[in-house]
Design a protein that fits this description.
CATH superfamily of the largest domain: Aminoglycoside phosphotransferase (APH), C-terminal lobe
CATH architecture of the largest domain: Alpha-Beta Complex
Number of helices: 9
Mean pLDDT: 95
Number of domains: 2
Low-confidence stretches: none
CATH class of the largest domain: Alpha Beta
Largest sheet: 5 strands, antiparallel
Strand content: 15-25%
Shape: globular
Distance between the termini: 20 Å
Radius of gyration: 19 Å
Strand order of the largest sheet: 1-2-3-5-4
Helix content: 40-55%
Length: 267
């Protein structure tokens, strides 16, 4: 994207492109490694503005998240510049290191979930996410890479109907268990101090909002699975997660439901 260079030119410092996120946004690291820039096309500028607004709202609430440095928008797209959270993503840890970091990761998530939501303006409710899934499926835009292997050859409408069958039950559960969710609580979005193996921050909060806490719990557990060298590590992580959150009887069907819905909302 040529316009990306133009959006960063006004900063008068050097930037290195490091990746394209799952959303398709481009990510750049500033030459001093103290800031990152996320750049979206015009089609995704509203979503990037939503991430900016969430970060601004979370400032001062005791949750370590990036601080907004600058926002710049042109006809072709938008650029969000924010401070870097030091450390490494939890996705880069091996199973032993991840298990050591895991309790602090759960506590960070718990702190987010315990934020008062009565004044939170951001919604990630099941009704909105299912409507998003309906739109993506109708446009045949489901990204097959996000689907589990057993679902990649199944028609997207069949996968949507499978989710739809459980909606009424999940709506009732959401009313009782609504919290401020991260919305994409995957291993790349937990930043870890590589020396102390403590979680020191959360990133990529563009989907943060009020939702059933199982939205986060399902993604956190499922995304960590590929890191465990032994089944015992996954079992221990599962116990730590639900014991810390004081959930005596984890609802595995509810976890599975949100894992079926989430891949249909990325398109």
């Amino acid at each position: 994207m040529e316009f990306a260079k133009a959006l960063l030119a006004h900063t008068h410092v050097g930037w290195t492109r490091i990746k394209a996120g799952e959303s398709g946004d481009l990510v750049y690291r500033r030459e001093d490694s103290l800031a990152y820039a996320k750049i979206a096309t015009s089609a995704r500028s509203a979503e990037l503005a939503g991430e900016r607004d969430r970060l601004l709202w979370l400032q001062g609430k005791g949750i370590p998240v990036p601080e907004v440095i600058d926002w710049h928008q042109v006809e072709e797209g938008a650029c969000l510049i924010m401070t870097a959270i030091p450390g490494v993503p939890a996705a880069e840890l091996d199973g032993d290191a991840l298990l050591k970091a895991w309790p602090s990761m759960v506590w960070q998530l718990k702190s987010l979930h315990e934020q008062p939501i009565n004044r939170c303006p951001f919604d990630r409710s099941l009704s909105l996410m299912f409507a998003k899934a309906e739109d993506i499926v109708s446009r045949d835009a489901v990204n097959p890479d996000f689907l589990p292997p057993e679902d990649q050859d199944r028609p997207a409408r069949e996968l949507l109907h499978r989710v739809e069958r459980d909606l009424l039950l999940r709506f009732d559960q959401e009313v009782i268990d609504r919290v401020l969710c991260h919305g994409d609580a995957c291993m790349p979005n937990f930043m870890i101090d590589p020396y102390s193996l403590q979680c020191i921050g959360l990133i990529d909060l563009g989907r943060a909002g009020k939702a059933d806490r199982y939205v986060d719990l399902s993604l956190m557990m499922a995304n960590a699975e590929e890191s465990w060298a032994m089944p015992e590590q996954g079992e221990r992580a599962f116990s730590i997660l639900f014991e810390t959150l004081e959930i005596a009887e984890p609802d595995r069907e509810r976890l599975a439901f949100y894992l079926r819905l989430d891949p249909l909302t990325w398109g």
